[in-house]
Design goal:
Oligomer: single chain
Bound molecules: zinc ion
Structural class: alpha+beta
Distance between the termini: 66 Å
Number of strands: 34
Shape: elongated
Strand order of the largest sheet: 1-2-4-3-5-8-6-7
């Protein structure tokens, strides 16, 4: 064997990608500028962020090349296998492989990376790009089993040796799976007549800075595989590669055979950690046993900023500086934040059960750091065509309205992110495709591609409209509804007009979700009016039927995006105490702006409601007057308006005037909030379109602070700055029209 060069590795990976069974995520760049690649193998490949049961990493030590060689060969095998069980596994789940985690060391023939650091001693500090890349792979794919390929020299007298991920804190069930995999691997080695045994003290205390134990903190089982590097002749190199390759086969075979029970263990252990964290159950953090353990660690704002990356990559949830231990990542939180930890990255203030009678929020599942992928999908079927390279765009969603944006797709000709030109053509075709933004595994925004502009430059511009814009391309048919439900009959009926046209062609596959509202209405529509479905639904939004087009996965493989036209009297969660609060005193870099608008129609202190008609025949209300404001020195500002063409009763007009005065006496106060999208409160995790949200902000305008609650009728997300802004409902606007 002549070890595959880095250039040949890049070529080989391009070939794997061309099979359609492999996608590449570049998780960082080494000090020498070499991409740190994670291969996602499946048919089709799983997304980054999807659970991938098996992760294989190799070459943390640059002078231990046999595992890398085997990992590359194994990736190649997975793109060609025809074994039914493997094909089923690849179709349903997939495998993640990082063949070259320390490319600089490989190139230089050194154990350490280019900074002279041992990559396999920094999985807590994350002080090197290689560690951050591996931590990203662990954090995003959350493997059930992680295999770490190494070579031993010169002490090894056996062909191949193994060690399970060991750390006393690791759950016994997680450790048992590691032991079972070691048993299977030893059996294979024995069957092949390869000498084998344990590597080191397999019952030792372990070290969280080393990959296997670190994986255990993340509830993953793991096995360290060490082949003897003693024979470096070509024959020896071939043998060593064969031994490593066989263990990749064993890891896959074990995972396929035991996937259900491994998944069950993961689920059980997660639930157990949440429960144990809530009662302060002890944790052995190696230096000591913390008993009782805190039920939370409090971090100040500077600490939150300092350890944000660690919390993200270890999937540790943090809310307003508080890290609850009632979470699946409880072990990682203790090792990272306890004062007595040997590898801590911050010293959090421990809070014990007795101090937190106020009740800590339970964090039901480990928080996955905000991650973003862009997909090109068929607009009709929703099926994924390709994963697009990193896109910069400012995208927006608003209830009951469409928005437009120019999505800019970088088009590198080579290297990571390069797509074959023919695929670019199909994936970005105007009219037939949509671009989908996936945030935290949730398809969050879709743009129907209308135009495509590109040429000499390195970018492709795709002006898009959100899917609501498609409703402008369809027309309302004849309907006569008398006393029918506003949602399940009228709204759903109009939505049907944007569906497939029998005998002609397809719509965009909208799934209509419109339960009965209990509101009965009469509505007549004539096809000859040529009204767009969009305009008809906008009109319904103004009379109490809210709607939006939500996105969701149609399948567990995240290959097909469903488009759901949802209709409700209220979209989103109404709450006096909202779950999501934007606070300037948090790590989310919240900014705010309050616009007080007293322009025409938005402010008055003298209000008259009047009916249609002229002169004596025009009834009008008694003026409703804000006498306090006038006494305090405000000049008279009049507002005269007609609430409805059908109201002529003076008593009713009086009531309208009084209500309108209450709305306009203080003018319009519009809050604009902006926050980092990767911090609490996170879009689609802590809040979504239509929800009430809260704020607790301090600024030069409000040095003593001010709180409030408002409704997010939409949001704007700028992927270039990483900032998200809820669009708050202007209380004075027509509910069908948000500004
Ligand atoms: Zn090693």
């Amino acid at each position: 064997v002549t070890w595959t060069s880095l250039d040949d590795e890049a070529t080989l990976i391009s070939g794997l990608v061309a099979t359609g069974r492999c996608e590449v995520s570049v998780l960082g760049t080494s000090a020498d500028g070499i991409p740190l690649r994670l291969l996602r193998l499946g048919d089709p490949p799983p997304s980054l962020g999807q659970h991938i049961p098996l992760l294989i990493i190799a070459e943390q030590h640059g002078n231990e090349p046999a595992g890398r060689e085997a990992a590359l060969l194994f990736a190649d095998y997975l793109t060609t296998t025809t074994d039914p069980a493997e094909l089923a596994f690849l179709a349903d789940r997939g495998v993640a492989i990082m063949p070259t985690t320390n490319p600089d060391g490989f190139e230089a023939g050194t154990r350490d990376n280019a900074s002279g650091a041992d990559v396999n001693r920094h999985h807590m500090s994350l002080s090197h790009a290689e560690n951050r890349a591996i931590a990203t792979a662990l954090g995003q794919s959350r493997p059930l089993l992680a295999i770490d390929l190494h070579e031993a020299f010169p002490q090894s007298t056996r062909n191949i040796t193994f060690a399970p991920g060991r750390l006393v804190a690791i759950d016994t069930q997680v450790r048992a799976i590691s032991d079972a995999v070691v048993t299977a691997m030893k059996a294979r080695a024995t069957a092949e007549s390869w000498t084998n045994g344990d590597y080191g003290d397999v019952d030792g205390e372990g070290n969280e800075r080393i990959f296997g134990s670190n994986a255990g903190l993340r509830l993953a089982s793991s096995v360290l595989v060490e082949t003897s590097r003693n024979d470096d002749t070509p024959t020896g190199q071939t043998d060593r590669t064969d031994w490593q390759y066989a263990m990749c086969e064993e890891a896959l075979a074990y995972t396929i055979a035991n996937l259900a029970s491994m998944s069950d263990v993961r689920a059980e252990v997660e639930v157990a950690h949440i429960a144990a964290g809530g009662i302060g159950a002890p944790i052995d953090i190696r230096s000591t046993v913390i008993d009782p353990a805190p039920v939370a660690y409090q971090l100040d704002a500077d600490q939150v900023t300092a350890v944000a990356l660690h919390l993200d990559l270890f999937n540790v949830a943090e809310v307003g500086g508080l890290v609850s231990m009632a979470q699946t990542s409880r072990l990682a939180a203790a090792f990272l934040l306890d004062a007595r930890g040997l590898s801590n990255v911050a010293v959090g203030q421990p809070l014990f059960a007795s101090q937190s009678s106020g009740g800590l929020a339970q964090v039901a599942h480990a928080v996955i750091r905000t991650r973003v992928t862009w997909l090109a999908c068929d607009v009709v079927t929703g099926r994924k065509i390709a994963e697009l390279p990193d896109i910069s765009a400012m995208v927006e969603r608003v209830l009951a309205a469409y928005t437009s944006t120019d999505v800019v797709v970088p088009l590198p000709l080579a290297g990571p992110g390069a797509l074959p030109p023919a695929l670019v053509d199909t994936a970005t075709a105007p009219v037939t495709t949509m671009v989908v933004l996936v945030v935290n595994d949730v398809p969050s925004w879709a743009g129907w591609v209308r135009d495509r502009v590109g040429g000499t430059g390195a970018d492709l511009h795709l002006p898009c409209v959100t899917l609501e814009g498609y409703l402008r391309a369809r027309r309302v048919r004849d309907h006569a509804w008398v006393g029918q439900d506003l949602g399940s009959v009228i709204g759903a009926g109009l939505a049907g007009d944007a569906g497939d046209l029998p005998g002609v062609g397809a719509g965009i596959g909208l799934v209509v979700d419109a339960p009965p509202t209990g509101i009965l209405r009469d509505r007549t529509y004539l096809a000859s009016d040529r009204q767009t479905v969009y305009d008809a639904l906008r009109e319904l939004a103004g009379v109490g039927l809210e709607w939006t087009i939500d996105l969701d996965w149609a399948d567990s493989r995240q290959q097909v995006v469903n488009k759901i036209l949802r209709m409700r009297t209220r979209i989103g969660v109404a709450a006096v105490v909202p779950r999501a609060k934007f606070a300037t005193e948090s790590g989310a870099e919240v900014t705010y702006r309050l616009s007080e608008d007293n322009s025409d129609g938005r402010h008055a202190n003298y209000v008259v409601a009047y009916a249609p008609g002229e002169g004596e025949d025009q009834p009008a209300s008694t003026p409703a007057i804000d006498q306090d404001a006038l006494d305090a020195g405000a000049p008279v500002v009049e507002l005269h308006w007609q609430p409805s063409s059908s109201i002529t009763e003076v008593g009713t007009l009086d009531a309208h005037a009084v209500r309108r005065l209450a709305e306009v006496r203080h003018g319009s106060r519009l809050w604009k909030l902006s926050a980092r999208w990767d911090r609490y409160p996170r879009l689609n995790v802590d809040w979504a379109v239509g929800d009430d949200i809260g704020w607790d902000v301090v600024g030069h305008r409000h040095p003593a602070g001010v709180t409030g609650v408002g409704r997010a009728v939409g949001w704007v997300l700028d992927t270039a700055t990483g900032l998200v802004s809820p669009r708050l409902l202007d209380p004075l606007s027509d509910p069908g029209v948000v500004s």
